[in-house]
Amino acid sequence: MSQSTASNINQMGLAATCANCHGTNGVGVPNAGMPQINHLSSEAMLTQLKAFKSGARTGTIMHQLAKGYTDEQLQTISNILGKK
């Protein structure tokens, strides 16, 4: 496997973790506290993820999950999932 292919698989894996709660199409489950994310731009998504990571924004679990990612990984997730 080429380094580029491995990198793409890793990047998609990072973004796929979001689907566990927000669904594969990002519509979430609003009544269960898992909001829709498919309308967010990459920039808005990154802002929210960084706010969770820093503790500026709280949530049921996102503030804990975001702390497990580097800023580079949060950028990758935002680039893949954010609305273009």
Percent helix among the residues?
Answer: 55-70%
Under the CATH scheme, which class? Answer: Mainly Alpha
Annotated CATH architecture: Orthogonal Bundle
Please report the distance between the alpha carbons of the first and last residues. 29 Å
* Biggest β-sheet strands, sense, barrel: none
- Series of secondary-structure elements, N-terminal to C-terminal: HHHH
Number of domains: 1
Q: What is the average per-residue confidence, as pLDDT, rounded to a whole number?
A: 90
| Strand coverage percent | under 5%
The CATH topology comes to Cytochrome Bc1 Complex, Chain D, domain 2
Tally of helical runs: 4
Low-confidence stretches: none
Shape: globular
Structural class assignment? mainly alpha
* Number of beta-strand segments: 0
CA gyration radius, whole angstroms: 13 Å
CATH superfamily label? Cytochrome c-like domain
